[in-house]
Specification:
Helices cover about 30% and strands about 15% of the residues. It is an alpha+beta fold. The protein has a domain at about 25-54. The relative contact order is 0.16.
């Protein structure tokens, strides 16, 4: 499979089917969303998936 590299001024992030899950975008920003932040900390990304598909 092919990977994709997304770059900022300070960081490169590799995304792809065989790579770990990466959070990209403000819609799933946990800042100010305590429940979302706690779920992500515990490895529960079900709410992230729902937000991404909305």
């Amino acid at each position: 499979m092919t990977n994709t590299v997304i770059s900022s001024r300070t960081k490169d992030v590799v995304i792809g089917f065989e790579q770990p899950f990466r959070v990209i975008g403000e819609r799933i920003n946990p800042t100010g969303r305590k429940l979302l932040a706690e779920e992500m900390k515990n490895g529960d990304y079900s709410r992230v998936e729902a937000d991404a598909l909305a």
